[in-house]
Each structure stands twice: as structure tokens, then as C-alpha cells.
Amino acid sequence: MKANSQSQNLVLKLWFLLHQVRDVIISCEDQVFGKQKLTTERYLVLAITKLSDGHVRPADLARWLGRSPNSVSMLVDRMVKAGLIRRIRSRDDRRALRLVVTSKGENALEPATVAGLDFIQKVLSPLSYEEKHTFARLLETTKHQAFQYLNHRVGIEEVEGNDITNYPDLMSRLFGGVSISTPEVRGRGGRKAKALR
Questions:
Q1: For every one of its 197 residues, what pLDDT tens digit does the chain have, with 9 covering 90 and above?
Q2: What is the 3-state secondary structure (H, E, C) of the chain?
Q3: Which residue, 116, 65, 54, 108, is CA-closest to 84?
Q4: Backbone dihedral region for residue 53 (phi beyond 0: left; psi -120 to 50: alpha; all else: beta)
Q5: pLDDT digits (tens, 9 = 90+) for 117-139
Q6: CA 53 vs CA 47, 85, 99, 153, 173: distances in Å
Q7: Which of 49, 141, 164, 173 has its CA nearest to residue 149?
Q8: Quick check: 89 and 97 in contact, CB under 8 A?
Q9: How far is CA 179 from CA 122, 169, 170, 197, in A?
Q10: How far is residue 15's CA from residue 20's CA, in Å, rounded to a whole number?
Q11: Are the C-beta atoms of 28 and 119 separated by less than 8 Å?
């Protein structure tokens, strides 16, 4: 009975920790991205749109952000009005549209990504490179279980196929081939052609 109680206490602790970590990370990101006049949501829309090479639809954003299509549509409307993204209609189907980042959006995205990367590296600095890999794997497992809880018919393959975090070249997609010099990369012998700071 004691082992069961300890297991339940651990699960409860993890549940609360997941919420606390998410909330404090978002508060910190709002502060970091606020310097570029972005919210965390707007930053994520810009980053996802950029990573998708202009092939993202509002429905894709809603799925990736875990938001309703209606709330994402209103967010996109505000970002279009702010000049950060624009809609492009398909020539084949006028109802179909995709989103692209404008030059104003690009000008906000790059320094926000550098600042965000600096922030998250500081937060994750106590973890070794191997621990970060383990942490990422554990978070992916947890995310997949949560997706399956929401819709048991969605397989892990489908979730992974729509997940931009699975792109092996996230940095080059965000920065067009320009790499960010970080202490971790330098410590592992990585060389960068150009460092942003």
C-alpha cells in the first residue's frame, strides 16, 4: 500500500511540476519576446510559419499550438494587421490559403529567436548534453500519450509527421543557413561561419 501511495504522490508531483514549468517558461518567454514587441504566441506563429517554408495553413497552426481553429484565426488576423505575416491564397483553390512571414516578421523573429535560445540555454544549463537528449525523449513520450488521450485514433506516426520539432535542421530553417554560436556548440568543437549576437 505504501509503494502505491508513493507512486501516486510522484505522479501528482509530476503533474503539478509540468504545469508550473510550462507557466513559468511562458512568463519568461513573454518577457524575453516582449523586447521585440512579440508575445510567446506570436513568436510561435512566426517560428512555425518560417520552419514550414510557407506551407503552413491556419489549421496546421491550430493543431501545433493545441488551440481551436477559431482562436488561431483571430490570432492570425491580428498578426496580419500588425504586418508580421500575410495570407496567400492558392491559385487552384481560392478557399485554401497558407501563411508566410513578412519582412517585418523576419526582423522580429531573428532577434527574438536568439534571445529565446539564450534564455532556454540558461534554464537547461544544469543538464548535460546526454540528459537533454533523455529529457527530450521523455517529453516526446509524454506528449504522444497526451495526444492519444485526446484522440485515440491518431497514431504516433501521424503526430510525428506533423511535428516541426522533428526537423533535423531547425536552426538553418530559422536562420537561413546562418548558425548561432553557443557555449555548448563551442564546447563540442563546433565551428560556425557566422555568429549572431
A1: 677 888 999 999 999 999 999 999 999 999 999 998 999 999 999 999 988 877 788 888 888 888 888 999 999 999 999 999 999 887 776 667 889 999 999 999 999 999 999 999 999 999 999 999 999 999 989 988 887 887 755 544 544 555 666 666 666 666 665 455 554 444 444 434 344 33
A2: CHHHHHHHHHHHHHHHHHHHHHHHHHHHHHHHHHCCCCCHHHHHHHHHHHHCCCCECHHHHHHHHCCCHHHHHHHHHHHHHCCCEEEEECCCCCCCEEEEECHHHHHHHHHHHHHHHHHHHHHHCCCCHHHHHHHHHHHHHHHHHHHHHHCCCCCHHHHHHCCHHHCCCHHHHHHCCCCCCCHHHHHCCCCCCCCCC
A3: 108
A4: left
A5: 999 999 999 999 999 999 999 99
A6: 10, 13, 9, 28, 8
A7: 141
A8: yes
A9: 18, 11, 10, 11
A10: 9
A11: yes
| Grid coordinates belonging to 29 | 518567454
Please give the single-letter amino acid code of residue 7: S
